[in-house]
Amino acid sequence: MNKTDISIVVPLINEEESLPELIEWIERVMHDNNYTYEVLLMDDGSTDNSWNIIQGLHLKNENVKGIRFRRNYGKSAALNVGFQDAIGDVIITMDADLQDSPDEIPELYNMIVIDGYDIVSGWKKKRYDPITKTLPTKLFNWATRKMSGLQLHDFNCGLKSYRKEVVKSIEVYNEMHRYIPVIAKWAGFRKIAEKEVQHRERKYGTTKFGLERFVNGFLDLLTIFFVSKFSKKPMHFFGVLGTLCFMGGFAVTLFLIAQKIIDSYQNIDHRGITEQPLFYLALVATIIGVQLFLAGFIGEMISRNASERNVYGIKQKLGFGE
Question: DSSP alpha helices (H): ranges in 86-204?
């Protein structure tokens, strides 16, 4: 098999208008720099003519390959499958809407091959998006920097380059594509750089992301933090909380019992233990403590026997030698 310098993974849904122009642009950049390459067009359940366009592009250029999902699984699923099938020494991701410029590819490639970085993340310093999109994005980028320790300005930029070993060593699922640099860092890849890239105005169609992505982004940030810290040791999280709750509830119960014994010995009028609100708080704390401890125990068993989380309904593959 001939060596492939670059694999370009392009997740897309309903981008029939932009695909021919995007591929022509990529071909020109690859030819000008004498790169061997492949373009993996990941059709994430498009309902327009995108797949037919992909088939036509493949007939014109065998370096253009396509993978078609039976339905929309999301950008993370598309990237994860693309990463599995990519064969290039350097993997570059970009969006299909022409807002990412293929002219950035040579420098992204050189920063991996020559400068030795594991990941180079794009930074769209000047954006052509409304404030309703840019303001929440800045907020999430700030929160991610604080939580992860990675000093990147734009975690969600679709234009990134990776050393092959990186994408073969991580799994991207749910909506975790926003946090691939964080996942890679926690997987041991620490040579992560940032490159300012051009952000172009959308030429065709409309954005595929709504306001719900910001809520999902925050929840996914919490998820990635928890999973990275405790996925292999859930008992360290649930067990500690469960023990604290149980011991607190048990201590309060002992206090109430001791108080009743002392009051009875001294002939002091007192309410029954079950008549005191503190007793029920202690009871709830004890029960929650047991449940948390059991959750940690079950989590330990699951983590030792976890199967693959990414199972996708791939409908067709194009250009992979089948």
Answer: 105-113, 131-148, 164-167, 180-186
Q: Among 1, 11, 175, which Cα is nearest to 78's?
A: 11
Selection from 273, 265, 312 nearest residue 69 by Cα: 312
45 in Cβ contact with 290 (< 8 Å): no
Give the residue, 279 or 67, on which the prediction is more confident: 67
d(CA 24, CA 153): 30
As a whole number of angstroms, the distance between CA 78 and CA 219 comes to 20
CA atoms within 13 A on the CB side of 79: 27
Spatial CB neighbours of 55, under 8 Å, sequence gap ≥ 6: 66, 318
Helix axes 277-304, 240-265, angle to 10 degrees: 150
pLDDT in tens, 17-31: 999 999 999 999 999
pLDDT digits (tens, 9 = 90+) for 134-185: 677 777 788 788 877 888 888 888 899 999 999 999 888 777 888 899 888 8
34 closest CA partner among 87, 107, 106, 119 = 106
Residue range 210-218: mean pLDDT, rounded: 63
Distance linking the first and last C-alpha atoms of the chain: 15
